[in-house]
Specification:
heterodimer, A: alpha/beta, six-stranded mixed beta sheet, B: alpha/beta, D-Maltodextrin-Binding Protein, domain 2, binds adenosine-5'-triphosphate, binds magnesium ion
């Protein structure tokens, strides 16, 4: 199979606001048909990055090509769809009027009714924006992004603040767009969302990409697929924990210790045996698969989401 | 099918406005209420009678009551003087049978008129015969009443208020809600957005002007003496002048609060100086060139000339020039400094 075409590339992207270095050298490359995720905590520079690529924010330094053109180019705007992190569509307009307004901007695009149907907003066609629920508003935002029949979709935190059901619907829409050959760049705080939607991920922190790869590759980079979280009183020392079989890494998390282990079946009995031998009380122990969250904590030493 | 972006944007603005009861009231309801209240206060009443107090003299009072223009009261001297001091009466009349004394405030025209009227009534009742036969012709020229002055001023004021409010506030609000940013990311032509603002303004401006003129005519008999086309053109130029200013405010203000402040800064001086409620000619001569350069003055003055005096548009070229300047200069500055986020 031939290598898919590059839809978007940027190198050395930099942007500062006064004394805040929001983006400090970001390189990205998106292939046609993939969904690429920028995963990072608050203030990491995700929105700034995506808005530079959308042509909304001028960059300080770096090189950007989108569909072969510089960002913000009129022909590029015809072919991208956008949902900003926060947009309030005109409250007094109805769903139908909103979508029709956005449709009118594009020289070619999809049927307004078809898009409304696809986004499951039929029942709300004549409802005003002000009366929509959070999930419906987000779907309307997606309708406005999709009505121009874009090749490339930019979604800035498409499911933040939504309940799980509404989030699932958003995911379905993104996956359907991708299945039809569309390319997506999205930002998110949710590792679950990134794992579910994205073919490749860049973890962003303090304006820099600190790791990239597919979700599986990133988790594999931990060198241990399993996680054991254990709380004991008094705490066991990191050195003894690290010496347990197949444990590659130990890190603190509040009162608990987080053990990255290649093989839980080997590590867990040894851990319990150690506790008994040292006469410490095991207050809590859980095991689970390693996730992107663990990758993030490992790389930055902090949680992905603000506590 | 795809419709024209300019039309869709214009429709968005109009629909937004029409679905906002508050905005509707301020643009259409408020001027009506204002016109009615002011019209009631200043409606043409029959002339006030002349108030006369007679000091304890029943026969004299009785004699004077024969004159319909006089309103006669009788009182003791102290009481009568007190009433004169309070300007409850215009003249105090005191007679001892042989001579007569008039007491009045010479600086009040009413006092002087009252004195003459009482004197005439007394002389007539004493049998004076006029040497010439007099006929009274009472005039009330259309276009010279206060309400005639008021209606064009209200039209001007309303065009200013609605243009500034709808445009400047609308832009700042759309920017705050990131709607401008969202639109800027589409292939929408920036000029379409700005044009749609002007276009929807023109549509509403026609309605506003027609409604106010119709009310003025139906409720107060204020007729347009000059040409309707001239009124329409002036309203259009005025509306565009204020739209230009509003666009500039919308381009500059970063918050709705600053926009509100800037709008008041622009509108307040004009409410006071531009002769909406009373003639701007009352202000000192040194201020006149400045006052005449204000768009609302130009609009009010030219509307009054056309509506009340049937002046042809050509006689209003100076006002038209002022309005054009206000329409064009801020508009082009606004285009340069307009921020989408
Ligand atoms: N217009 C601006 N002016 C000044 N500083 C800004 C501006 N936009 C962003 N910043 C700063 O740049 C940094 C990166 O912000 P950005 O919005 O890109 O983060 P983010 O990763 O999208 O965060 P979040 O997850 O909270 O949306 C932050 O410190 C922010 O305060
Ligand atoms: Mg963001």
């Amino acid at each position: 199979m031939p290598e898919a075409a590059t839809v978007l590339s940027c190198t050395g992207l930099k942007k500062s606001f006064a004394d805040v270095h929001a983006v400090r050298g970001v390189d990205l490359e998106l292939k046609k048909g993939e969904c690429f995720g920028l995963l990072g905590p608050n203030g990491a520079g995700k929105t700034t990055t995506i808005e530079i690529l959308e042509g909304l924010t001028p960059l300080d330094a770096g090189e950007v090509r989108i569909l072969g053109k510089p960002p913000g180019d009129a022909s590029v705007r015809e072919r991208i769809g956008i949902a900003l992190q926060e947009t309030e569509l005109p409250e007094k307009l109805t769903v139908l009027e909103c979508v029709r307004l956005f449709r009118s901007f594009y020289s070619r695009g999809r049927e307004v009714d078809a898009v409304i149907g696809h986004l499951e907003l039929d029942e709300k066609r004549t409802a005003r924006v002000a009366k929509l629920s959070g999930g419906q508003r987000q779907r309307l935002a997606l309708a406005c992004a999709l009505v121009g029949d874009p090749d490339l979709l930019f979604l800035d935190e498409p499911s933040t603040g939504l309940d799980p059901q509404a989030r699932l619907k958003v995911w379905e829409i993104v996956l359907a767009f991708k299945a039809a050959g569309g390319t997506v760049l999205l930002t998110t705080h949710y590792m679950e969302e990134a794992a579910r939607l994205c073919d490749r991920i860049a973890i962003v922190d303090h304006g820099k990409v600190i790791a990239r790869g597919s979700p599986q590759e990133l988790v594999a980079s931990l060198g241990a697929a399993q996680v054991i979280e254990v709380t004991t009183a008094p705490p066991l020392s990191d050195e003894v924990l690290k010496a347990l079989p197949s444990v590659v890494r130990v890190s603190p998390k509040a009162d608990a210790r987080v053990l990255h282990a290649a093989d839980v079946a080997a590590a867990l009995p040894a851990l319990l045996e150690l506790a008994r031998a040292q006469k410490v009380q095991v207050k809590n122990v859980t095991t689970r698969e390693a996730t992107l969250e663990d990758v993030f904590v490992h790389l930055t030493g902090s949680e992905l989401r603000d506590a | 099918m795809r419709s024209s972006p300019l039309l869709e944007l214009t429709r968005m603005r109009m629909v937004t406005f029409l679905r906002d009861p508050g905005a509707l009231f301020w643009v259409f309801g408020f001027p009506l209420v204002l016109a009615f209240v002011l019209g009631l206060a200043f409606r043409n009443r029959p002339p006030d009678p002349i108030h006369v107090v007679v000091v304890a003299n029943a026969p004299l009072a009785q004699a004077l009551k024969g004159d319909g223009t006089l309103n006669i009261e009788e009182a003791a001297l102290d009481d009568a003087r007190w009433r004169l001091r309070r300007a409850q009466v215009d003249v105090l009349v005191q007679s001892d049978g042989a001579s007569i004394t008039y007491r009045y405030d010479e600086t009040r025209p009413e006092g002087r008129v009252a004195r003459l009227a009482v004197e005439r009534a007394i002389e007539r009742s004493n049998g004076r015969v006029d040497t010439l036969r007099a006929t009274d012709e009472k005039v009330s020229e259309p276009g010279s009443r206060y309400i005639d002055f008021l209606v064009p001023g209200l039209i001007g004021m309303n065009l200013m208020g609605s243009s500034l409010w709808a445009i400047a506030y609308g832009i700042v609000d759309a920017r705050k809600k990131k709607l401008l940013k969202r639109l800027a990311a589409t292939p929408m032509k920036r000029s379409d957005y700005l044009l749609s603002i002007l276009l929807s303004r023109v549509v509403f401006l026609v309605f506003e002007t027609v409604v106010l003129i119709a009310i003025g005519w139906l409720a107060f008999g204020v007729a347009v003496q000059g040409s309707f086309a001239a009124v329409g053109l002036l309203a259009l130029l005025g509306g565009l002048a204020f739209a230009g200013i509003a666009l500039l405010i919308g381009a500059l203000a970063t918050s709705t609060e600053t926009a509100g402040g800037l709008m008041n800064l622009v509108m307040m001086p004009m409410y006071l100086l531009s002769g909406a409620f009373f003639s701007s000619k009352h202000f000192p001569d040194v201020l006149q060139p400045f006052i005449k350069a204000l768009p609302l003055t130009a609009l009010n003055d030219s509307l009054r000339a056309v509506i009340n005096e049937a002046a042809p548009l050509s006689s209003q070229w100076a006002q038209v020039a002022v309005l054009l300047a206000w329409g064009l200069l801020p508009f082009f500055v606004a285009l340069r400094v307009f921020r989408w986020q």
